[in-house]
Design brief:
7 strands; 26% strand; Dimeric_a/b-barrel; four-stranded antiparallel β-sheet; single chain; Alpha-Beta Plaits; alpha+beta; DUF4188 domain-containing protein; Monooxy_af470; 6 helices
Length: 196
């Protein structure tokens, strides 16, 4: 009745090649400063809706999370870092306008440390990630790239890390390619982006 259908058994994400993962969020430093944090809190759903309406911008999927009563963030999966940068800097998109407002307020001394903003970007090369889902609906990278039976990539993490897509390895066996779990991105030696 509610939610996505569960895929029985063990699966892995069907991602191929490099995987681009953006973690972006906010921390409410002062709950009483509602007029400072509510506009920022509401900005993210607006950006996600804007991206959902225009799939060509490159957002493949996202997961909304909370780390505490103060910290809210989104794990986003992108087609490429170029598409992520293009969205972030596009003057006709909401992110560019919202970030310009934050910068103006900061320069005018109106920010006052009521809200913290952050992001981390990882470009994880194929072979630097793996994932497993047991009796789960499509989630995380699998929701962004699709799911495969675990056997297509290997039952052990070591095997999934070793897998290469046909485009990366020249293999013509028809096997599907590498996968990722968001939690492995940082551990995979990924590179952090410059400020958007």
């Amino acid at each position: 009745m509610f939610g996505k259908p569960v895929t029985a058994g063990r699966t892995t994400a069907a991602a191929e090649g490099d995987v681009v993962v953006l973690l972006i969020g906010m921390r409410i430093n002062h709950f009483w400063a509602v007029h400072h944090w509510v506009p920022l809190f509401l900005a993210m759903p607006r950006m996600l809706l804007e991206l959902r309406r225009d799939p060509g911008r490159g957002l493949l999927g996202h997961v909304l999370l909370t780390a505490s009563p103060r910290t809210y963030y989104v794990v986003q999966y992108w087609e490429s870092k170029e598409k992520l940068y293009a969205y972030a800097s596009s003057p006709d998109m909401f992110h560019h306008r919202a970030w310009a407002i934050v910068n103006r307020k900061e320069k005018a001394g109106k920010v006052r440390q009521h809200v913290g903003l952050w992001h981390e970007t990882y470009v994880v090369p194929e072979g630097g990630y793996e994932s497993i889902y047991a009796d789960m609906p499509a989630f995380g990278l699998a929701a962004a790239h699709g799911q495969l039976p675990l056997e297509r990539r290997g039952r052990r993490a070591k095997d999934r890390f070793a897998h290469r897509s046909t485009s990366a390895s020249g293999d013509t066996s028809g096997a599907a390619s590498g996968s990722v779990g968001a939690t492995t991105a940082a551990a995979a030696g990924a590179t952090a982006s410059e400020d958007a």
